[in-house]
Amino acid sequence: MELKVGRSALLSGLNLAQGIVERRNTVPILGNVLIEASESWLALAATDLEVGMRTRIACESAHPGAVTLNAHKLFEIVREAETDEVSLRSLDGDWVEIRCGRARFKMMSLDPRTFPAMPTAAEKADAAAPADAGRTELNIGAKVLTTMIDRTIFAVSPDETRYNLSGVYLECPAPDTVRMAATDGHRLSMIDRPAPGFSMKGGAILPRKGLNELRRLLDGSIEGDTMLCVEAQLAWVLQGNTEISMRRVEGEFPDYRGVIPKTSRYQVAVGRDALLAALKRTAIFSSERYHGIRITLATNSLTLSSTSPELGEASETIDVDFTGDEFSVGFNATYLLQAASAVSPESEIMLGLTDEVSPGVLTTPEDSAFLYVVMPMRL
Amino acid sequence: MRGESTSMKQNWGDAPWPAVIAHADMDAFYAAVEQLDNPALRGKALIVGGSSRRGVVTSASYEARAYGVRAAMPTAQAHKLCPHGIFVPGRMERYAEIAREIRSAFESFTPVVEPLSLDEAFLDLTGTQRLFGSPLEAGRAIKREVHRRTGLVVSVGIAPVKMAAKILSDLSKPDGLLVLGPGLVREFLEPLPVERLWGVGRVTLARLNQAGIRSIGDLARSDPAMLAGRFGSLGAHLFELANGRDPRAVVADWQRKSYGEENTFEHDLKLDADQLRTTLIAHGEALARRLRADQVRARTITLKLKLARPLGGGRYPLITRSQSLRGATDDGAEITRVALGLLARVGRDEKIRLAGVQVHNLERSEPAQFGLFGPERIAAAKHARLNIALDQVTERFGHRAITRGLARAEKAAPSTRIK
């Protein structure tokens, strides 16, 4: 293999690969990227077996061929290069030479035939000659999809043993509507968007990591439309020359509809920015382990307070329109912070509270299709 | 308030206090509360408690004590001694209400307050010198603060060890304050009768007397090996106490090891009596309330029964059964469920005179995140909600205002906090 490729195109491909390659390095080949060169294109691929990426980059190729190279080292080399062009060349044995200007690197390639690439979009498209019964296509604005991911992904469970909570649930709650919902068992974040022509039987849990990478990919082309394909095992997006694919999470998403309260006893409106800032300040004294914070509603005031037995305490009052008996409830400050952050700046947040043990509800008039449900904490 | 009857030696200043422990004990507490609430009773011989068959005097005003009436004396005997006395039934809620105020007065001096009952507590004043001055000044301040808040009189004993502080407060009554400096404890104890020592009950006293030990000084001069031989570990412990050494620290509620509720029945009960079940339910609720108030949870639950068959010497066979839970609890329904389960397994055809429930293996209540899913989580939230409501009602209206179904037991006999 011998080729020359533009530095910036290669760098952005390698940048995307960084988030995907296996970090724990248990299987060495998963720490590598696959580079396959044809006459005028090279394909760059990375995977951790759950999530894969593949991108095509124009290049000048003298000899087609394939190598796999350590993703992180190659990324560093290209990042630090000062030339507009990078050249790669196979040497004797498994050595690969990388040149950028007068700098020269030698890296060992692992056998490309052992690289466990995810199925590519091209292969999948070929296979799907007649209307594939198992395939659903969601055509949606890249920006809309980005917003949906941003407003749900933070509620995904970090606990990998609760695998059915380890991703965002995608479904079609009504014709021409797409919904994403995520929960870690303590809170639920959910958002709907119109999606003309979209319909899907059942739902799919998409892994957090795959959506994070998808999110990064979409960041580059936020204006256009994109298509998310969901198949029996995989979901994937082809955006320009780049494809992100991910294995669907197996397992059943919990019956989230049942935990959404129909009403709340108290409703208060509070500015998103004021709430977020006050939460950040008050959370300074919430305990590191539990992040407990107290919300107290009294006549025309909402007070946030926290106590750390070792360090001290904090409180801050926000003016709100409230009448009723004074009442107070504890929450994990992080859960409130993340939800408030997900709401657009300068908008208003409606906080629905009932009692010390019933779920709190956070909504915003700016996006009536967004809903956040959070269970209290006994402090 | 009457003048302070402070009697002490003023020469403790040169010896440093290893610990400053106060024992504060309300004077004729229940009777004093009755006299406080009803001015017509002031200055009268007033006797509280004991309208039931096994009734005993729970409290007597100093005017009644002049006739020889004492707490724990059968009511009938009190009637004989003081026929013109005014006998009133107790009002536990009111006493508990005032006790909370007293407790909060104590806690304004130190967080380490160990209540022994509603009306007496140890306070660890070690290290409070800069805040409240010398032990004597602190003692005066405690008496002032309790009187300011409640209008009632407390007697206070202060010493470097618990046992001496308790004896001092008792000797100082009424309206007393006694302070004993370090280095004087042994000398102070020397002439006192040995039953003054905490832990010397009727049985031990008789055996000590048999060994020729009558005063604490006699005990202090005894051969420790002989004591250990005759009394085992109790002997060694008593020897230490008699020599003015008491290693026991003041243990605040929140550091305590267990909670207990128990009561003696008016009539002996069979094991399957409804009244026994209702009593245990009431105990479970009372314990849970106390656990929640102190923000602790318990992992082990013990059922304690005293059989009606006497062993002689005023003693009765004691049965205890314990069970540990997978997770600590502060829920009355759960404590009761375990206690009733233990009762079902006692399986003896005997009558009992006393039933109690204790909880141990305490842990601080950690903040708990409620979950969204799962029937057991919904149930947990319901329990939590019910307990919050129970505590709120109790706080407003007293602990008899609300009980779970079946728990009419508190009518049977007032339960006693035993730890």
Descriptive key words:
A: 379 residues, alpha+beta, DNA Polymerase III, Chain A, domain 2, eight-stranded antiparallel sheet, 25 strands, B: 419 residues, Alpha-Beta Plaits, DNA polymerase, domain 1, five-stranded mixed sheet, five-stranded antiparallel sheet, 14 strands, globular, disordered N terminus
How would you characterize the overall build of this protein?
The complex is a heterodimer of chains A (379) and B (419). Chain A is an alpha+beta fold. Chain A has three domains: 2-114, DNA Polymerase III, subunit A, domain 2 (DNA Polymerase III, Chain A, domain 2, Roll), CATH 3.10.150.10; 121-256, DNA Polymerase III, subunit A, domain 2 (DNA Polymerase III, Chain A, domain 2, Roll), CATH 3.10.150; 261-374, DNA Polymerase III, subunit A, domain 2 (DNA Polymerase III, Chain A, domain 2, Roll). Chain A is built from seven helices and 25 strands. In chain A, strands 1, 2, 3, 4, 5, 6, 7, 8, 9, 14, 15 and 16 form a twelve-stranded antiparallel sheet that branches. Chain A has an eight-stranded antiparallel sheet with strand order 13-10-11-12-24-23-22-17. The longest helix of chain A is centred in the first third of the chain and has 12 residues, at 7-18. With 419 residues, chain B is of the alpha+beta class. Chain B folds into three domains: 1-182, Alpha-Beta Plaits (2-Layer Sandwich); 190-242, DNA polymerase, domain 1 (Orthogonal Bundle); 259-397, DNA polymerase, Y-family, little finger domain (Dna Ligase, domain 1). Helices cover 38% and strands 21% of the residues of chain B. Chain B has helices at residues 29-37, 62-65, 75-81, 92-107, 129-132, 135-150, 162-172, 185-189, 202-210, 216-220, 224-231, 233-242, 274-293, 332-344, 375-397, and strands spanning 21-26, 46-48, 59-60, 86-88, 113-117, 120-124, 154-159, 177-179, 258-270, 296-307, 318-329, 351-364, 368-369, 416-417. In chain B, the strands form three sheets. Chain B has a five-stranded mixed sheet with strand order 5-6-1-7-8. A five-stranded antiparallel sheet of chain B has the order 11-10-12-9-14, covered by helices on one side. A three-stranded mixed sheet of chain B has the order 3-2-4. Chain B is globular. Residues 1-13 and 405-414 of chain B have low confidence and may be disordered. The A-B interface holds A 183, 185-188, 254-256, 259, 287, 290, 292, 330, 332, 355-359, 373, 375-379 and B 365-373, 381-382, 384-385, 388.
